[in-house]
Specification:
Length: about 600
């Protein structure tokens, strides 16, 4: 027995020592990561923009992502704000002589790319060089590379130039096989978010809006590349229609790229630009490190601030996450900005396809309350549609990029009747007692009566009337005209500006300037603050140790099967009334 207790105490002591050592190790790592890293920018440096990674409004830095173990699979997310800040600073930094674009396949939406491209064009006014190299270029990658002074394409590589498409997945056949019956309630002939559940292909109205949407985005794409490369739009379009650009030689022959070459040839060209010896290495510095360098003091009056509140992801009630907008969290941030006397104006940066109708309305109300106290301007990113537009319409002005996806003003309700699935496929049956005829309504385990269905449709109709009347008031247009633009119809930023759903075409910087002017702040007399703020590396490390993004865990453990599990999760979250973009709109 004595020997037993000896082993027990030895084990407990070992565990205790392990936790103590782990604690001090964690504190040590945290201290190292939390300390102000001194980054020195060498003379004749080149700012390296590696955009072949996820790009979000605010970045996420995981300094231990290469260590594996609990940190594997958590790659860095580059912040749009960091990219733009780095370009603005580099434009005036004498130590930065140019930019190297690594942009084979950026993981970002078209409006985000527009923001980056416009900032690169501004950078070029400094007369510093911008060069790009790629083993291959997707159309998104080439959209950024096209403004470069030199574009190198690997002679064994490839280039995508075949136009754009929008493809949807349809699940009616799956539900039929599983005996699951979706009960759909909607308003709006263009509300195609529910089509994947009840059809095997796109409706005529869905095809119409999708074709016009990608046509507008494609037109902006071709126009801007035409300006950069000096090739007429019809010629560029012809290249896609005929698949002319089928290899690197064709890309060079038709002047889409300036050189075919390997990495060493590309780097030698940079050395010539920098006038450095062949034996010397080029001093590249990435965005994350560069923004930590103390190259310029912060301008503006500390007591005059413009707050940028980032709202990114699907909309739901309660708390949010890195991938969603929680109405409770959003309201807290908005109240803090509203009550802070140093904050004179607010920009609401929206990147959301929508979600819960209730949460959207709750946030709209808080935006309205805020607008009575200080200016609040909406800045639309890649997507600000349905619930995302619901948020924007409460602001004083709406700013969108030409290729922002917006509109989708409509509401739908969705309930999955799983009675036959549970009975026929799993052998599960249901029975119940109730005090009133409709006590279990709405339900997914029995067929609803026509009266019960009519009551849900009534709620959807009322929600749509509420949405459109508030949108009409926000846009200062007759509700009849607003409803002619609604019906769940999706618009590009250019189209939305033409029909009055958007006030100004531009990016986040334009929205900040508008907000500052509305608060009677002069240029240079204010500072800009983003909320929520970017997490420090130690905070991110703790997040990785305490838990992981559920989606990333699924990706790591299930591989390709994870997409089906995510789809199931989204279906379960779509119960009740939704203000949501057409389902899984992906433009390639």
């Amino acid at each position: 027995m004595l020997q037993f207790f000896k082993y027990v105490f030895a084990t407990l002591a070992g565990i205790l020592v392990f936790f103590i050592l782990s604690f001090f190790l964690l504190v040590g790592i945290g201290s190292a990561l939390s300390s102000d890293e001194k980054v020195v920018v060498e003379d004749k440096s080149v700012l390296k923009l590696d955009l072949n990674k996820p790009i979000a409004e605010v970045g996420v830095e995981n300094p231990l992502s290469e260590l594996g173990g609990p940190f594997s699979g958590n790659e860095d997310v580059t912040g749009l704000k960091d990219i733009k800040d780095a370009l603005k600073i580099a434009q005036k930094d004498d130590k930065i002589k140019g930019i190297y674009l690594k942009v084979e396949n950026p993981q970002a939406g078209w409006a985000t790319l527009e923001e980056i491209r416009n900032q690169l064009l501004e950078f070029k006014k400094s007369k510093k060089f911008v060069v790009a190299y790629g083993e291959s270029f997707s159309e998104k990658g080439y959209y950024l590379a096209s403004l470069s002074d030199k574009i190198y394409l690997n002679p064994a590589g490839g280039m995508e130039w075949n136009g754009m498409s929008a493809e949807y997945s349809f699940y009616k056949g799956t539900f039929d096989k599983l005996n699951i019956k979706p009960e759909i309630f909607r308003v709006g002939s263009f509300k195609s978010a529910i089509e994947p559940f009840i059809r095997e292909n796109m409706s005529d109205s869905s095809k119409k809006q999708s074709a016009e949407l990608i046509g507008a985005i494609y037109g902006n794409f071709l126009t801007n590349i035409s300006k950069s490369r000096g090739i007429e739009v019809p010629v560029l379009k012809g290249f896609a229609d005929s698949l002319t650009i089928d290899n690197p030689k064709a890309a060079l022959a038709h002047k889409l790229v300036t050189h075919l070459g390997y990495w060493d040839e590309f780097e030698n060209s940079i050395k010539k630009e920098l006038s450095i010896e062949d034996k010397k290495n080029v001093s590249y510095i990435g965005v994350d490190k560069y923004i930590k360098s103390d190259v310029t003091p912060e301008d503006g009056d500390y007591n005059n601030r413009v707050a940028v509140i980032v709202a990114e992801g699907e909309i739901n009630s309660g708390e949010g996450s890195d991938e969603s907008i929680g109405s409770d969290d959003f309201i807290k941030e908005l109240k803090k900005a509203r009550d802070n006397d140093k904050i004179k104006a607010i920009v609401l940066r929206i990147n959301s396809p929508g979600g819960s109708a209730l949460a959207s309305d709750v946030m709209w109300r808080e935006i309205q309350v805020t607008s009575k106290k200080k200016p609040i301007i909406a800045s639309m990113s890649d997507v600000a549609a349905s619930g995302g537009y619901y948020m924007a319409m409460g602001c004083d002005k709406i700013v969108a990029q030409p290729n922002t996806i917006t509109g989708s003003i409509g509401i739908f309700g969705l309930i999955f009747n799983v009675k036959d699935f549970m009975n026929n496929k799993l052998g599960v049956t249901f029975d119940a007692v109730k005090t009133s005829e409709h006590a279990d309504w709405p339900t997914a385990t029995r067929d609803m009566t026509e009266f019960e269905k009519s009551m849900i449709q009534k709620n959807v109709n009322e929600g749509y009337a509420n949405f459109t009347s508030k949108a009409a008031a926000g846009r200062k247009m007759p509700v009849e005209k607003l409803r002619s633009l609604a019906q769940g119809r999706v618009w590009s930023g250019t189209e939305a500006k033409a029909n009055g759903l958007v006030d100004v075409l531009g990016g986040i910087d334009d929205a900040i300037v508008i907000a500052a002017k509305a608060a009677k702040l002069d240029e240079g007399d204010y500072r800009v603050r983003y909320f929520p703020e970017k997490k420090k590396p130690f905070e991110e490390l703790l997040g990785k140790m305490m838990g992981d993004s559920e989606d990333k865990v699924l990706d790591r453990n299930l591989g390709e099967l994870s997409s089906y599990v995510k789809m199931y999760k989204k279906l379960m979250n779509m119960g009740g009334m939704q203000t949501r973009l057409p389902y899984e709109l992906i433009i390639r």
